[in-house]
Amino acid sequence: MKVKMPKRSPYKNQRGFALILTLLIISMIVVVTLQFNRSVWSGLYGSGNFKEAARLHLVARSGFECAVTVLSEDATENEIDTLLEPWAKSGELSLQSTALFEKGHFMVEISDLCGKIPINQLIDEKGEWRPAQKDLFERFLLSKSFGLDPDEVSILMDFIKDWLDPDDEITRFGVESAYYRGLDPSYSCDNGVLTSLDRLTLIKGMSKELVYGTKEKEGLISHLSLFGGGKININTAGPLILQALSAEMTEEMAKDMIAYRKDPLNDLSDPKWYQKVSGMDHIVFDADLITTSSHYFIIQSTGILEKMEQRLTVQVFREPGRPIQILQWKAA
What we know:
This protein is α/β, with parallel strands linked by helices. Helix content is 39%, strand content 13%. It has 8 helices and 8 strands, in the order ααββααααββααββββ.
């Protein structure tokens, strides 16, 4: 006797399939909902961050604009620039900024680039040394602060010239692009002006220790500038650069010059004022190397909102009677 098996209901299979399909759809809805929710909150958070970033930039920009105003007003008052003028006391601007912003302020610093060595002025348009600037830079490199001997400086000068001059002709012990292309990683000479002082480390002989300094020795970079007319403002230059202005200068003489210019009663308008310093009446600086006025400055303005910071580093050119010109702008 055959036993008849009960037939499976097609509806039961359909109900099972429908249940699985429903679960899948619900799962998809949950995933999409969660993703949408995450996107909404991410967008809101991003909008908040953007708003705070915009505020932070405006605070930093306000510090820059204040610095520009101070420099512009100073240019209308006189053509002499010293470290006793308002632009050199930018800390006072920083203190006043706390009353301008809710939960924020800026810190601004103005530095004179004409008190530094303009490295791009070492070579003229024809690719030749500018003699006065070359001698100044050699004396600067020979400072005991950098620990270089005369032979090392002489060879280093060749490396620098070949990097800056526009041709591919090797200068004495120098090197051109063929040498740098053989390195790993390879690169070529700039064969022109430096666009960043950090590029000094690409030049043969310019180690990071020499450029940036170490705990024991200071580096070159803080004494150099990309911009400048070629003359050093002796009213603002540091001791190493003052000492490099003449082979007869000593460390003590440079310190005496700095002490002299700190006295507000001393007249610093005449570029030959240094000869009034005790023991320096016989010293003669090259007139092509010195000035008492400045046209190139660097403004560093840091915007601060609670724990957030943004720094603007702006190099500018100032000329009496004209708006200040921005030469290089960097935000970090």
